[in-house]
Protein 1
Amino acid sequence: MPRITVGRVVGTLVCLSVLFLNYRLDFGRASQESAVDDLAGRGPRVGEHFADFDLEEVGGGRVTSADLLGKPTVLVFARSLDWCPFTKSFVTELAASIGRQPEVNVLLVFAPNQVNTKAIRFLFDRGIAFRVALDQGRQLIERLGIANVTIRSRIETGVPYPAVFVLDAQGIVRFRDTRRNHRIWLAGSRIKEELDRLG
């Protein structure tokens, strides 16, 4: 086979491999503007106070529900910033949508076995300054009824169903989104819109 033909064949195969990989990575991943409440009836409803909590904060110290009063708060219960591409996409989109707003609290809550150096590095490398808390024993996740009971692999142990709660400055739930399907997440622009409604 002439050398130029071999080069073309190899080049074509490389391009096809890259396209296939991009297709596999993006397949079934998307954000949507409309809210979903697959776990309706679990956790506080819109208009109710969010449950009191006291969680370990990554970096030291603790964060409580009382600490967040006085500002609107976005509480995000997520799978993992280590291995879950859907969580990574959602958090990146949320950061791009709301940016750094000192007048807004954003707290990411994870099961403790889902936070490691790689997960924290993900946030640091992208300049995302959200606070991160560990729900030791998954006590809050269990109390809210958002524990994922359809674990498919050992790496998913302890993860909650994805959930977003937007609270006003008094700690009252003004918006909620809970999902069984982690592959489609709430658009960051929708969360920004809910925050803007709170003034």
Note: The two ends are 69 Å apart (CA to CA).
Protein 2
Amino acid sequence: MAAHGSSGSSLLSEPTKRMKHQHILALTFLVLMGCQAPSVESSPDRSKTEQMHTTTDEAAIKDLLFKYRDALNASSVDQVLPLYTTDGVFMPTGFPTAVGTEQVKGAYAGVFSMIKLNIEFFIDEIEVDGDHAFARTTSRGTTLIHATGENVPEENRELFVLERENGVWKIARYMFNKMKDRDPLPGQADDELAKGKAMEKILRK
């Protein structure tokens, strides 16, 4: 009798085991579905967050570019340098490339010793990708040539490669060239050549 009772108990436990197994599968399915649902719903939220970050970055970059404009108009090396990364590169048209803080400092000191800018910046494009970005701008205004006292029209197009350094957007690479919408003034080509040679001497020091 004892053996028969044991066998009955064993037979009754099989359906119970199957029911438990089915319950576990059903619960697992519900948990998985529950985990997936928020990810679908949160997709628009993530998109909004990314858009907010991009808008904030673009605003910070615009502020940087206008600070750079102000530094140029003030002929201030002290205002320019903090806007560059420590390994920043300055590639002015007609002048040698300046790499690193000391060369960038010397390059701007040389430029400001020869001319006084009075320009306005116009931002054409800003693209942000993580901690890097680029910006295209154009600038228009006038340039006072110290050697002659002459004011001449100034119009350039610029390309900035930007980098977030310690949470702050800075200029990593910068180059510009002049817009060729007018013929050079008499003697201007010779002046540009002379300025290039003078800049080479400054950077070699």
Note: Residues 1-12, 37-41 have pLDDT under 50 and may be disordered.
Protein 3
Amino acid sequence: MRITLAYFQMVGWLDRLSGLLPLMARVVFAGVLAPYFWASAATKWESFPFNLSIGAYAQIFPRAFEAAGYDVAALSFWHKAIAMAGSYAEIILPLALILGLATRWAALGMMGFVLVQTAVDIWGHQASAATIGMWFDSDSGSLLADQRALWAVLLAILVLRGAGALSMDRLFAGRFGIHNAGTPPPPPLGRI
């Protein structure tokens, strides 16, 4: 009986701490993924904010750019627009997540970005089977299946829970009289 009571007291305490999860997710994103995306974005700009480098097209549309003879002028308007939008997204979305600004939208945007990035890696750059990896095997270090699944879970926390404490979302919500913005309350403990 004492063990059961101690367990449920601990669960109640952990439920109250679960409000820190979004802030922790944003700190981990800032320390682990934002530098990765910003370093990648830096390779895509010849002169910010309007001139993409040749590398941007080679990274985003490897096959189409090769078919165009590595001539940017031979690419379509859509190739250029998508490359520009993706290059801006790689800078703006991580910054929004770190600041906790429009966090749920930014996290959804990053999830879409990672999905497109993964598709380009698999089909555009023809990633090897070892790089792609697979779930439920003994190797947890594949760059695509394993790592990007963890990225998606981190981003899903922000989509589902919002920015949490110390965020622009919370600041703006307080300014406009919206309570509990950014983080829903933890579920009630109830009877089990």
Note: The mean pLDDT is 87.
Protein 4
Amino acid sequence: MRVARYLVERRLLDIGQYTAQSTRNPNIFLTIARSMIAIAQISLLALASADQYFVPVGQNSADAKCSGDVSGFSLFCTIDIDRQVTAYGILVLLVVIASGFKPRLLSWVHLYVSFSISTAIALPDGGDQAVMCIAFWLAFASLNDPRTWGWDKRAVPNTKSTVQSYFDSISVAAIFALRLQMAYIYLNSAIAKFPVDAWQDGTAMYYVARMENFGSVTVLGDFLRSLTSVPILTASVTWGTMLCEIALALGLIIGGRFLYVSVLISITLHLAIAVFLGLVSFAVIMVGGVLAAGSLQLQRLRSDILIYKTLTRHPAQQGDLLFRNAGE
């Protein structure tokens, strides 16, 4: 009862306090999400040479795509050196970004790096376009984070300055905007499948499991092909994928406890995609995007769990914790 009463009182004290809380209690889930996405991009550049991403497509040459209105601002276009050297430079930047160093500043560098990769290479990975959207909102979401290291869990001093208040509001608005962005991505993906015959009749995963360009090999590949050889299982996986995407999107929109369900669906769905289809970097990027979108509530859940553990071990600290968090 003591713990339940504390949580109720805390919720009442937290009304209208999202912005203040986001300043005083660093959002560790934003750091986790940013690092996950950067690591996925590192794998893209580290495990393949630049020549494998700059190849002739149709009538286009193997050079970087620098002729568009905005693609010319890519690092691959603005720096007149060998593109492999440019790729190594971007790789170094991504390593620093993944380390969590100076999130307020390097989130903007991350946005530019993501733009450079997505717009210039001829063979983009499945998550590149999503990364640009995610990195855009993460840059604004990190404006109120003055820490040197994103992994530092110590509370950030509240300066109560006008500029910091603006940054707080922008940060929270950006995270909510990212929730809508991720919801749109999943909902659009599900709706786009509706008119396709293979998705309507439940056979799409049968063909996906047998595509030559990607997928798992050896035991995992054999298992997936065996699984999709059974009509009822193929239909279940096919339609289940669409239902997961819709449920994930709705959970992000509705929020509350449904958001936690969305996070679990995202992890499960993309783990399966990584394991059975081999799209590992895409899976990591999308899970990172969902974690960032739900970071405010995930951070609150983490705080509640830590407080619950403290109260059960040290009941005498109840009053101190209540009033300390009331000021956050």
Note: The chain is about 70% helix and 0% strand.
